[in-house]
């Protein structure tokens, strides 16, 4: 009997030992002035922020946080309340961070060249946002003068970042980080409408194709760069060349979000179908009637290879799950709502908005250019 009672304990210890030996990275350091507050380690994914680890800070503020080694280099953040430190992790390294809560987002120190560069970029972005906010709060300039001043500041910022962080080292994680910085919740570098900015995305995409060809970040970046090149292409204008074997593969910018059952669904998994990519908010008054219209189309053409990939931006997760539970197509939700990266990447200006994606997984039509939705679906299906 004694041996039998010991056996489960030994099994548990073996499991715990195996977990401890799993490859991981470590973030250690000290954050002062944050007594009794919680420090969170979060993964800053493409579509969501995922909690990884947390610790209650004591008077000394020392901490150690761990996360599973990422398959490819990934971005994370340390957060105490609304104070955030962005950082990148390449493998199983140990990174030391020191800060004081009162100036945590700008006054911290961190190990590693990549993360020091990310800090520089974060500090520049915070300063740019503060300068823009001051223009609005001062109320001493006319609206057109404020806009001119903002354009001047943003142009100066772009020139600095392009020269010193992107084109100088397009194969670095801080170059990637620079591409997706924002002010006023809008990307500073325009990946779809500004040809000079598109070159930045193309330069980093080309480098990442060589370094991390199978990373989802590389796939999204490549497709975004190619889409931007197509939208800004002009005669006799030299474009940044991406590997030719990838161009035919490029189509939609992939979307990876969880459905109402917690399963991750990817837009690119629907290759071979004609897909209506629909950005919506279920809480809008017109949503029920609109979904009834979509159900008629779905029931009519699903047997011919038609699918709907509906992205909800609802803030209330429970409401979304309840509403989506009775819908027959793919329903996913971006918890960032109006701050969704996908709204920026797809240049969505209002909701609801839809796109049509052909069987080759390429964007084929946008709502504004479709006069008869059902006729366009039949055309895409070949009916």
Structural features, described:
The structure is a single chain. By secondary structure, the chain is α+β, with helices and mostly antiparallel strands. It folds into three domains: 90 residues, Carboxypeptidase-like, regulatory domain (Immunoglobulin-like, Sandwich), CATH 2.60.40; 125 residues, no CATH class; 126 residues, 3-Layer(aba) Sandwich (Glutaredoxin). The protein is built from twelve helices and 17 strands. The strands form five sheets. It has a five-stranded mixed β-sheet. Strands 4-1-7-8 form a four-stranded mixed β-sheet. Helix 10 links the parallel strand 14 and strand 15. Helix 3 packs antiparallel against helix 4, helix 3 packs parallel to helix 5 and helix 6 packs antiparallel against helix 7. About 5% of the residues have low confidence.
Features:
single chain, 383 residues, alpha+beta, Immunoglobulin-like, Glutaredoxin, globular
Mean pLDDT: 86
| Spatial separation of the terminal alpha carbons | 73 Å
Global geometry = globular
Q: For the record, what CATH class of the largest domain applies?
A: Alpha Beta
* pLDDT < 50 runs, ≥5 residues: 15-19, 235-250
Please state the CA-atom Rg, rounded to the nearest Å.
24 Å
Largest beta-sheet characterization: 5 strands, mixed
Fold-level CATH name of the largest domain: Glutaredoxin
Strand order of the largest sheet: 15-14-13-16-17
CATH homologous superfamily placement of the largest domain: Glutaredoxin
* Level-2 CATH architecture of the largest domain: 3-Layer(aba) Sandwich
Q: What structural class do you assign from the helix and strand content?
A: alpha+beta
